[in-house]
Every structure is written in C-alpha cells, then in structure tokens.
Amino acid sequence: MGFLTEMKIDIHAHTKKCKSGDAPTREISPEDFCETILSTEVRIIAITNHNVFDLDQYKEIETRLGTDAQAWPGIELDTLEDVSRGHLLVVVSPTVAGEFSEAVEELTKDSTPDGFAATIEEVLKAFDVFNPLYVAHYKHKMPSLSDDALEKLETTTGHPSCVIKEVTNSISAGIYVSHGHASVYGSDVHDWATYEELSHELPDLRLPVDSFEHFCLLLKKDPTTINTVLDRKTSETLELCPFDDGSTLRIKAFNDINVVFGPKGTGKTCILKAIAKHYSENGIDASVYESASDRLNEIFDTKGKDLTINLDDYHINYCTTEIEALRDASEVGVTSLSKYVAYFDAKSTNRNAKKILLKDIEPEEEGSAKREFTEFNKATETTAAFLEFLADDPSVNKELSEEERADVKRILSELLERLNKREWSTFSGWKEICLLNSAIEAFRKEVERKTGTPAKPTTTGFRGYAMNRLKIEINATEIVKSVDTVIPMQSEHVGDLGSNKGGLEFRTELQFQSGEITDGALSSLTSVKKGVQKKFITRVRKILAHAYADDLFQWIAELNEIEDVEDVKTVYELLLFKRYFALDGNPYSPSSGEASMVMLQRELGTDKEVYILDEPERSLGNEYINDVIVPLIKERARAGKKVFIATHDANIAVRTLPYSSVYRCPGKGGYRTYIGNPFLSNLVNLDDASDQLDWKTISMKTLEGGEEAFGERGQIYGNN
Q1: pTM (whole model) above 0.85
Q2: Do 67 and 155 reside in the same domain of the chain?
Q3: 441: pLDDT strictly greater than 80
C-alpha cells in the first residue's frame, strides 16, 4: 500500500447480520462494501462480525480493495467471565486469515451466534498464537469488559501492548495512551447507508501504517519503526539563535504540527520569533500570530478605510461624461420670427448687396459625413484589436497552422490598410464640410455687416433646441439609472463561534445615495459629504423631471450652486457603505473571547506555507479549542503545511499529536531544551542525550488540563 500522510482507521465494522438482534442494514455485499469504503478517507478497516468470520466474503473484499485500502480479518466475540458479559474484538493479520478462520470454526462449532460466549482463557487459547489485536469494549461502550477481565487479558496474553480499549470516542488510534491502555474508536456500523457521514468521526492515524504488523510495532512504540516512519515525513533542521546569550538551538521541524511548551517565562515566544525570522530571511511569508481581539475592527476594516469597488463588475456606468455634460448644459434658443420678417421685408440700398449672394448660400448637412467617419473609425479599431488578439491568443495559434495564420494575418492586414484609407478619407470629407460651413457662416455675417441686409436664417433652431433638451434628459436618465442599481451585499464567513451560536459573518453593504436615504449607519465611501451626495442626486432627479419645462435651467443652476459639487465627478462619489458583523442575519458585536476565536480561524484559514501561533488558546474555552481549533490545525497539517505552536493548553499540545515537541524548562545554570514526540513518548535533552523525560508525564505535569487530556473526558473522548 502506498504512503499516505494521514489515514482513517475503522477497527470495528460489520458486514453481516449474524445475531437476531443485529439490524438488517448491517448486511452489505463485497462490491458495495468496497465502493463505500473507497468513497471515504478510511484506508484500514477490520471486519468484525458477531461470533462469525466469513472467509470467502473476506477474500473477495480483500481482492476488490487491492492496494487502495487494507482489510483486516477479525471477529467480535461474546465473552463471559465470572458472570460478567462483555464484547471483545479479535483482529489478526491478513496473512493468517485462513488459519484464523479455522480457529473461529473450532471455537464456535457447538454454538449459534446468539448463544455463543467464551471465557478470556478460551479466547487466548484459540487466538493468541496469531499475535492478534485484542480490542475490548470499555466503560460506556456496552457491553463492556470488566476491569478484572481486562486485567486478566493483559496479564495472560503474550502480547500485552496489543490490548486496546474501544471507547465511545477516541483520538488517533493506537498511539494515544488512556488509563494505561491504548484506545481506539470504531464505527460499529449499524446502517451502511450512513457510513460515509459516520466515517468523518473515525480516528486519524497520525503515523502512516503500511500493514497489520507495522501497526502492532507502532503500538509497542518500537523506536526503529517510529523513527523510520518519521524519516519518511518531510522535515528540515532549523538552526536558530532565539536567546540573548547567542546560543544555537537546532530543532527538527516537520511539514506538520510542531509544538513548543513549558512553564511561563522559559523563552517559548523567543523560539517562535526566531522561527519566523528564519523563514522570512529565506523568502517565505512567516510571522508570529498573537491573539489580537482588541484589533478585530481594525483588521476587518469596519470603517472602510481601504474599501474600494469596481462599478464595472456590476455593469454600472460611472457617468463621468454625463455628469460633466449635465453641469455644463445651457439653453439653445430657436430662431426668432423677426429675423425672417427682417430678411423678407428688407430693401437693400446697397447695389453690391444684390450681387454678393454668399449670404443666401445654404450650409451643408454634417451629420451623415460624421456618421460615415465614425463607422470606419470603429471598424479600423476593431480590426486592429482583433489582429493583436490573433497574435497573442494561444488557443487560436493551436488551431491554425502556420500557413493558415499567415493567410489570416495577410487578409486582415490588407483590410486594415483599406479601412485606414477610408477612415482618413471620410474624416477629411467630414472636416471639409465643417470648414465650408464655418466659411459660409463667416461670409454671411460679414456680408450682412457690410451691406446692412440681414442674411436668410439658416435654420429655425427648433431641432437644436429639442436635441439639447433630449441630451439633458438622456444624461440625467443615465445617472439616475446608475444610482438606482442595487449592489449585492458582500458576505464573508469569518469563523465559527461554537455549536451554540454558529457562524459569524462579516457583511459589507454598498448603495448609492438615492436622495431618500437617512440611515445614520451608512457612511460615504469617498471624501464627498453625505449632504452633498443627497443634494446632488435630488437636483439630478429634478432636472430629469423638468427636462422639457421652462424652469429646467433653474434646476441646473441649483445643481451647480451646491457647495463642493465639483467633487462629484462620477456616481462613485455617491456611494454609501456600512460594514458589520452578523450572526443569524442580524448585526452582532463579538465579545473579546469571540474576537479571539474568529481571529485565530482567520489566521488558520489563510493559505500559506508556515503558521506560527503563540498561545492561540488565550480567551478561548476548551470546547471551542477541541471542536474548532484543533480540527483546523490538523487540516493545515494534512495539507503539508508547517505549523508551530507555543502553548500551555494540553488540548492543543496533546490532542494534535505533534510530530515534534520542544520542551523548555529551568535547569541548573539556565534553561534546558528537550526534543521529542508522543509516539516514542520521550523528550531528549539537546545538550545531554542521556537526560530523558517521559513525554506523557511532562505533558500532564506542565500543561493546563494535562491529566484530563489523556483520559476520556466529556465531548473530547466521549464519556457522554
């Protein structure tokens, strides 16, 4: 089986309804069994039916799983010892499955699954030769083996290190020592339809297990086996200078969980800072996280100092041109009727006036020439942009051969050249008309001045008047359309406040000042004052409503009279916002402890290579540490990240089962530093290898909640 950084184990699974009290939903075919197991993270599973071992079924399962998972043969036996009934699992190596099957048949041949019961002595006589695992129901795992029966089993078997307690819940199988015995938690599955969900709660194996025999060696805490496994884990040796005396500290750091613990004032924070410095100097983002509950609002920027938004993402027009045009708008008058009367009634006394007819020449219409130029201009820009796209886009280059690319480029280049020529010709044609009309207008005015004869009016002015009003309406409509657009609320999951409260969100609400918003909790996103925003959009709405009224330009004048109106260059300056924390959809102010919760979750939720946490348990309750923080730390470790933690809390230092533990304590002439791990359960003095401490004993003595962390306590280990 291939090396996995972490796997789940299920030491107690049923595949058959054997006893009358067994649920029918325990029945599962080998095919469905394998499909179910491989859909989970379970990679070791023991098949332990009640008083029965089906060798044929086991072999089919083993064949179907192949190298993707390990299936271990086993059985769940009813035991009877001094009138005390209990259940005992016996699990053996796959290499002796056949012999194990024969031993089961011999032991149970005179009984039915419902009526069978064996003494501890009978169980040992039948199975101890196979070097098995004995997994006893214990305490609240009913029916449990009595303490006397458990003691008899441990003192009589030839393999006492392989006696394990099965409790209602446990951490990392076979490594953790609880009340003097290794403990484990199996699914004891009753309904295979629920197995995938149930498997999430199964224990992780912090050390990878290659086989049944390997597992047994790990249970015995065999140093060679454990060190071999640890050597397979990615690690590096750090040379640090954390203390003022300049001494060098060499520690082995794993791409996993590394814990620093010890009494207060022994330099744990100094070690973390030295680790952060080491990685920073090597170009890796690393800094020491310290609880900062008082900086929650600053870190989440509730005041919006760095808050920005791109209106293009919401298809909202900034209206830069529209606002400028609206503010610069002025009335365009119609031609007075008196000018026509003067033209037709005038009798020229200047004989040259009748000869100089320039004053009566009609101007050329410019609109069609301008439209033609605009069309060619757009076509030229689009073609040029498409040529650039073809040259840079890898997908196009993959689809076209070199010859095809050359043909396309040639055709488009020729087209672009022709469009350029037409663009310039239409531009010059348009400007010729503009120049001619300007000349006609100048001549008309000069002739009129010289001769005293009014020129014939060139237009009634109604079109210009109407177009001006129409443009004002269009610009005002576009501005109002933008500010009436609803911007979706932005919501970010901040963290979990525990099972009693649920998830905390951080919300950002953005909306434009509509002219009617009076919510005091909303602030201006820019430096433009809220009063200016409100007056501005109110005037724009008035302008839109009076676009064809006589008082239109009075409202435009009032728009321009607003103090600091020049600061409103786009609708962006009309944005309001509020940012706040929310729980169950309602605004919520996290307490200091809750702020610590979400800050730590935010730190662990950030994707980076190195996490350095200084006493992350501050202001946090044990339940929250167990249910939220420890799983997050483990998740980072499973992702191959380096996690360094200085802690006084046993739930972190013990429950995470760190690959490396650094213990600091006072000693003669200064401080001592010990390195070790829970798998070997030792701590070795860096300066004197003969000076060794017991990891479990030191943890229980030094860490807060140490003794409880090793027992079955409440929600941690399942004494419910």
Answers
A1: no
A2: yes
A3: no
